[in-house]
Specification:
globular, about 160 residues, 4 helices, 5 strands
Length: about 160
């Protein structure tokens, strides 16, 4: 799903060094593919914009095992970073640190993540930039006594 979202940016991230690390053997998660791709696109788009004036332009995107039976998506950039004041408002509708856009991108991401029973947080990326981490619960194996339809399993 994440690789599919990144395909949208083919040829559009010139000058940005991109490193991806997709964890092997991650547990399945229950995702709406289209919605989750939209969240990834918004995060990558914001990261690219945050690096516009940076001398070093590095984008790191990873999927990996998370804590407490979750799968994590990490999108980290070497851009201007996020101040403590901005971190508190970042996921609110119409809040923006940019001169363009509606201020809805991260609010949409937050909404999509919440609809997947997940969480999103932003931290400082070292040495510079911001690191967004999305945690989505892994699908648990049904108990042998359980019957009925299983949700669609998707590899992140």
């Amino acid at each position: 799903v994440v690789a599919g979202a990144l395909a949208v940016f083919h040829g559009r991230l010139d000058g940005i060094s991109i490193e991806t690390s997709f964890g092997a053997g991650l547990p399945a998660v229950n995702l709406d593919r289209e919605q989750f791709e939209r969240a990834v696109v918004n995060l990558v788009d914001n990261a690219a914009e945050a690096m516009q004036d940076s001398l070093v332009k590095k984008l790191y995107i990873a999927t990996q095992p998370g804590a407490a039976e979750t799968v994590e998506l990490v999108v980290a950039d070497s851009g201007c970073g996020v101040s403590p004041e901005e971190k508190e408002k970042l996921f609110l509708p119409y809040f923006s640190t940019k001169n363009r856009g509606t201020g809805l991108g991260l609010a949409i991401v937050s909404h999509i993540v919440a609809e997947h029973n997940g969480t999103i947080r932003v931290e400082d990326n070292r040495p510079a930039g911001a690191r967004f981490t999305v945690e989505i619960p892994a699908l648990m194996e049904p108990e042998p006594a359980e019957t009925g339809a299983r949700p669609a399993a998707v590899q992140v």
